[in-house]
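Weekly sync notes, structure subgroup
Attendees: PM, AL, DS (notes)

Item 1: joint prediction request from the bench team. They want all two components modeled as one assembly rather than separately. Inputs as received:
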Amino acid sequence: MPSDPPTVDDVAPEPAGRHIPAVTPERVLAGLALLVPIVAMLWVSSYNKSEPAVAGTPFFYWYQLLWVPVSAVFTVTAYLLINRDEKARKAAGQGGAR
Amino acid sequence: MKDVNVPALVVFVLFFALVTVMGFLASRWRRADNAAHLDEWGLGGRSFGTWVTWFLLGGDLYTAYTFVAVPAAVYATGAAGFFAVPYTIIAYPLVFLFLPRLWSVSRVHGYITPADFVRGRYGSRPLSLVVALTGILATMPYIALQLVGIQAVLDVLGVGGGENANWFVKDLPLFIAFGVLAAYTYSSGLRAPALIAFVKDALVYIVIIVAVIYIPIRLGGYGHIFDSVAQHFKEVKTGSLTVPDNKQWTYATLGLGSAMALFMYPHSVTGVLASKSRNTVRRNMAIMPAYSLMLGLLALLGFMAIAAGVGKGVKGFNAQLSVPQLFANMFPDWFTGVAFAAIGIGALVPAAIMSIAAANLFTRNVYKEWLKPAATPADETRIAKLVSLLVKVGALVFVLGMDKQAAINLQLLGGLWILQTFVAIVGGLFTRWFHHWALFAGWAAGMVYGTWKAYGIASPATKHFGGNAAEIPGIGEIGYIGLTAFVLNLVVSVVLTLVLRAVKAPDGPDETKPSDYSAEAGDEELKNAPEPVAAH
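Output from the run, pasted for the record:
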């Protein structure tokens, strides 16, 4: 067992190069992109109804099924944003403090 | 007594034989030099790329029991059973936030189980032990339920001899299926389910796509299906096409709580840690929804079963047989065989991964930690293989010896229990602020509260543990007990941490450092890091 002294997360290692703050537009947007589908699904009263039906399928069902691909689009967006952020951090020599 | 559906049975057996051969050959697939190490048997050498991981996770998370239980819930209750769809929609954005960090820190330190991480992060043996035991406890009934999935299929196929046959003849097919499964899991480890998952997922996709096109054509279209369902619910009053107003909180909290619990399950973590890079994990969170779509369509099959009159007028009809019976009524015999093979193989893949995950937990966090600290990696592999056999025998005894309802109750409880490890694991991925004894107390509070609440719920099928929703104290709405217990767990952990920090209670050592949580395969840091072999 290695017995390093306890470390605390907010004591980041000395950045080797240009400093990139923990909160960047990319990270904020990625967080929002991940939050949207979660909020949409937890807001049950917004979709708990039968009309308008599509091809005989009540709103409740087709709306939630539609959210499956839509949520995937949001997650892909978050993925691309985070990728960009990590590349920037790597380039700045911080190795991505995420 | 029912006749045996011979063409369906032949197709079923053929597919079964195919995956058995694949399971044994899998040990040669991407074989590494260091076969004695637990990373090889228990994590497939941590080598799986994006597509293999996608198939593996899909095969792992969407189990035969899911295929049977989700449409069964929709069949019985309508909209309330559809919560599985928002649940899987929420799950991937949610875990996108923390699974990459779990992958990185596990790769740097050679962690194989979530309890390994807890041990390293908090330096606490008791906390690590309860995380491991919770994982094993939650996994066991889940494995047992995979058998229920196979049983449902065999019942409808007409094998298993019906009610009057003696127990041995009745359960022989189940014995054979599990014996074969145990043998190739033992010899090939995680590589077996990873390879078989290709067949399983392909079959499942084909069957679902055919089902949601072909069956509605035969039933007169979706409009007609929903009309007959509305009519049906008007008569039986057990369900409805939208969620009743007083059940909306239940619907949302079940979705959220289940999504949070999903990647706390040891078998999910095993699937994630087996991938070869941090980015592989992220990419998978973006492509996993393909399975959710399939699950949603599958849920609709419950309505098709109603419209097709499956179980109509049969007193005490088992809702779990509704979809297998629907397939048998609607499809030509040979395609029924394909559909049943999808369900049967759908049971084998998760059962294998779950038994591997439970075996890893026992080996790493009970055997090596408490019983034999000097165990070599080769010892670990040997023990894990043996335990994987024991776990499966245990599940078999459980299903055959005990009431099937007990397995279902325990699986519901398992989700509630595993959710109580969330604070320690996910909290620990972001901060070392929590004190390990506070987390321990929070875990205990959540477990006791949740189990006690669930015990008090009766249903027509069972006196206790008959459901998973109860009034949320302070809010007054009916919500998922597991999530309420989680909130209690979090509050206890926060308050006690404040107290323990105030009295300067001694804390355990943390062997991780901030940069470990963002390490990516190929990083300099990772090359210099102790290889998995040297962990602990």
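Discussion: Residues 333-371 of chain B form the longest helix (39 residues).
Action: AL to compare against the crosslinking data before next sync.
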